[in-house]
């Protein structure tokens, strides 16, 4: 019953808002190039479904490429930091610089370097660069959070660095790493959208570009349809990562456990 | 009994200036059950960590006749891997020593059974009570078949009833496995109940205040906990602690 209400209440709010929106647009006769009615947006979505869904696929693919690239790079670097204080001291400041520099500012440069012939690669790279830092900082934090006594125990039993890493440090890092992945996954999508905006006309073919294009043509209903799909993409990313977190942690970590 | 371990003139000062140990010396025979007793912060844990090799002393030596023996270490907290079940936790030392999986599983399960946790092999730490978690921790130490078992106030956080049960289990395991045990505690009663010898340490910086021999376990009256003999032991140890 409680679950049913958890779904019913938000749904009820959505219906209420959409109805109010539809009625307001009709009564006030708002022009469709300013604010189209929800019904018009649904119609635009159905009408442009083939091209919009293709764009959504591009956005998802590119974002995933960037995200997984960032994940692998960040985890490897975090492991390097955990093994070598020297490497951490030498390289961590640059990871921070990478983070505090707004990626939009670097996007044109990356687009030129990678080349407009490989636009998807450039977009994935920008998305990955943005997702990189939250994953790195959380993974570093996680690797450091292993129980000191457990680490002492591995030493007592003559464990190699590799054994200690695999048996104790990596599992200890998992909760923090998954938090970083959740933040990074959503940010990667923001990065991808930003990169598409920066890439500009004729090259990008994802949802963000469809928003720019529809805006230029004053096809505001299509713009809203693309926006809705972009929101849906973000929700899918977050839901998938939350599900992964739940699946991996629910048996043992407080953050994912049910309480009775 | 042959000498197992000799600690000579151990000193330790931590980087923050705290002097933990000042000239601590003692020796242990194989098969001893020795308590290391002293007020909080007197360097008992530091001494134990130095003996295990986890910590290097600033001065002095720890030497083992016959080479460094296989050691087990039990901390004040159970220190289990929360993501792994009881058997996997007990198996950790064997995994780290590359013991074949089948044999390691069998030995870990046997160690769990010996501490009374048969049937809890698949339980995660969060599903176990404080006392049971400590039992897993002891099973893990036993799984590697140690000669020397080092325990750092292992039962301090447990309730009286659980602690009494674990004390008796520890005595049984010591007897069955011919272990040598160093047991750090700040409980006079616990040290008197368990050990045949109590090393009393002075407040920080720790040095040896008294080395008290207690009746052998085999010579103790039945129902030792309630016997006058037990009270007498506690009186002697308390006096030594009072003048330390």
Write up this protein:
The complex is a heterodimer of chains A (260) and B (244). Chain A has 260 residues and is mainly alpha-helical. Helix content of chain A is 82%, strand content 0%. Chain A is built from ten helices and no strands. Chain A has helices at 2-28, 38-47, 49-83, 85-100, 103-114, 119-144, 148-156, 161-199, 207-216, 220-249. In chain A, helix 4 crosses helix 6 (119-144). Chain A is flat, with a radius of gyration of 23 Å. Chain A starts with a helix and ends in an 11-residue tail after the last helix. The mean pLDDT of chain A is 91. Chain B is α/β, with parallel strands linked by helices and 244 residues long. In chain B, 36% of the residues lie in helices and 24% in strands. Chain B has helices spanning 44-52, 86-96, 101-114, 130-143, 160-177, 188-194, 228-242, and strands at residues 3-13, 19-29, 33-37, 59-64, 71-74, 148-152, 180-185, 197-201, 208-213. In chain B, the strands form two sheets. In chain B, strands 5-6-7-3-8-9 form a six-stranded mixed β-sheet, sandwiched between helices. In chain B, strand 8 (197-201) and strand 9 (208-213) form a beta hairpin. In chain B, helix 2 crosses helix 3 (101-114), helix 3 crosses helix 4 and helix 6 (188-194) packs across helix 7. Chain B is globular, with a radius of gyration of 18 Å. The chains are: A mainly alpha (260), B alpha/beta (244). At the A-B interface, helix 7 and helix 8 of A face helix 2 of B.
